[in-house]
Design a protein that fits this description.
The protein is mainly alpha-helical. The protein has 18 helices and no strands. Helix 6 packs across helix 7 and helix 8 packs antiparallel against helix 12. It is globular, with a radius of gyration of 23 Å. The relative contact order is 0.16.
């Protein structure tokens, strides 16, 4: 009987690990590591370490923050700061992972990997419009009429991805396209690990999972797990999924670096991955990869448009779910046609704002959510983090903004006097100080109040 229970528990651990891996792993997790490898060159290993932290560890912490605080969504998670802040943060996150960047990127990636390699150059623009129109029209239909086909595709997709990647890795590492002795781009010649960490922001996973983890939590609760058991299972399953994902990341980064033996630095990882697979498996391999990626990003897109419509309907109930669904699918379609390169470039300033804010929220949620002085720690930490986060956003904004006189002067002082600011991590020290000082103040205030009560 005990052996049967162990087998059952191990099977459930694998199921939950697969759920977490499925939530983590999407198109961005495929294409960004490959491009990172091409940019990092001989410094690929340290760059991959940084990418693994922001691309794997941060998203797991986001899931744990939702689990530990028993939040029923991002609004609940951020509400201890204030109800208004929670509403604004919810809107910003959903716009980022939804119609502004995340959802359009799914269609743009699918088009670039599944259709563009097979179209004549003069047809690429028209092909993109037609492809993305069909992509989001189907997403809209399935979001209004939930179909078991999507669940079936999602169930077997991870296995398909991993099987194809395993084949690509074996062939590519047995017959490498070159070696790793390539000069890194400027950003990766020094501080490659930090550049890799910032490149991991592009996956948007840590931000997205703050909003989407509640789906995972409900699924695991459906298996009969509650409270400490739920947290323990999530931690174990998350660790298992992280190990797998980090191995995949390192393989993809190395794959990108080796590809420089026969390929030039690509515009983005989607182009690079298609070229690498095409090199080894010709057009059939490219087409097969395109189909897998399209199916994967489509299920992601479906989840994003659905969650956007559901959460915005809750926040603004006078507008129906279907109306919000139309807004996000149409807006995503329009943005997708700006092209993958532009979407990635436009998203960077927003991610430089949202990642520090998200990580600060994760920090306080995991440490002080249940403390009686939680409110002061939440508010102080988030308020202080917002200042360098806004400055990091401005520093990565278009040149017309970043070089504007007053803005440029403030950024110069920020990069000169705040530790790590010139590297894009200026929030680290202010956030740490705000957290520990407010934590100490709250603790001593609580002790003083308890002492006063005992003295009475």
């Amino acid at each position: 009987m005990e052996q049967t229970d162990k087998r059952h528990n191990f099977w459930q651990l694998l199921v939950v690990s697969s759920l977490i891996f499925g939530m983590f792993f999407g198109s961005g997790n495929l294409i960004f590591p490959v491009h990172l490898g091409q940019m990092a060159g001989q410094n690929w290993f340290t760059a991959a370490l940084g990418f693994a932290v922001s691309g794997s560890l941060f998203p797991l912490l986001a899931i744990l923050a939702v689990v530990v605080t028993k939040s029923d969504g991002l609004y609940d998670l951020a509400k201890p700061v204030s109800a208004k802040y929670a509403a604004v943060f919810l809107v910003l996150v959903h716009l980022t992972i939804g119609p502004f960047f995340g959802t359009p990127r799914t269609a743009a990636t699918a088009y670039q990997m599944a259709a563009e390699p097979f179209l004549p150059k003069q047809w690429t623009t028209l092909g993109q419009w037609l492809f993305t129109a069909a992509f989001f029209a189907l997403a809209y239909v399935l979001a209004t009429h939930q179909n078991s086909l999507v669940k079936v595709v999602g169930k077997y997709l991870n296995a398909g991805f991993l099987a194809l990647l395993a084949v690509v890795f074996v062939v590519a590492f047995l017959k490498p396209m070159g070696n790793v002795a390539h000069t890194p781009t400027v950003a990766y010649q020094t501080n490659a690990s930090i550049s890799g960490l910032l490149e991991g922001y592009n996956t948007i996973d840590a931000v997205a999972l703050l909003a989407l983890s509640v789906t995972f939590v409900h699924a695991v609760r459906g298996l009969g797990y509650r409270d400490k058991e739920l947290t323990r299972l999530t931690a174990k399953a998350g660790t298992l999924s992280i190990v797998l994902e980090v191995l995949v990341y390192f393989g993809l980064v190395l794959l990108g670096t080796l590809s420089l033996g026969q390929l030039k630095l690509s515009d983005n990882g989607g182009v690079a991955l298609s070229q690498i697979v095409g090199h080894y498996f010709s057009n059939f391999g490219t087409a097969f990869l395109g189909v897998l990626v399209t199916l994967g990003v489509f299920t992601t897109a479906l989840g994003l448009v659905t969650s956007f419509a559901q959460d915005f309907h809750k926040l603004f109930p006078k507008v129906s779910y279907l109306a919000w669904l139309r807004v996000t699918t149409v807006a995503s379609f329009l943005v997708a046609n700006a092209g993958l390169d532009n979407i990635i470039a436009w998203s960077l300033p927003v991610l430089m704002l949202l990642y520090p804010m998200s990580l600060a929220l994760i920090l306080v949620s995991l440490t002080v959510a249940k403390k009686p002085y939680a409110s002061v720690v939440y508010k102080t930490t988030i308020a202080v983090t917002a200042v360098p986060a806004v400055l990091d956003m401005l520093a990565n904004a278009p040149a017309v903004v970043a070089t504007f006189g007053p803005v440029a002067a403030v950024l110069h002082a920020y990069h000169t006097y705040v530790p790590f600011a010139s590297l894009g991590l200026g929030w680290l020290v202010p956030t740490g100080l705000a957290f520990f000082l407010s934590l100490a103040w709250g603790h001593f205030r609580l002790v003083a109040q308890e002492s006063a009560e005992r003295a009475r």
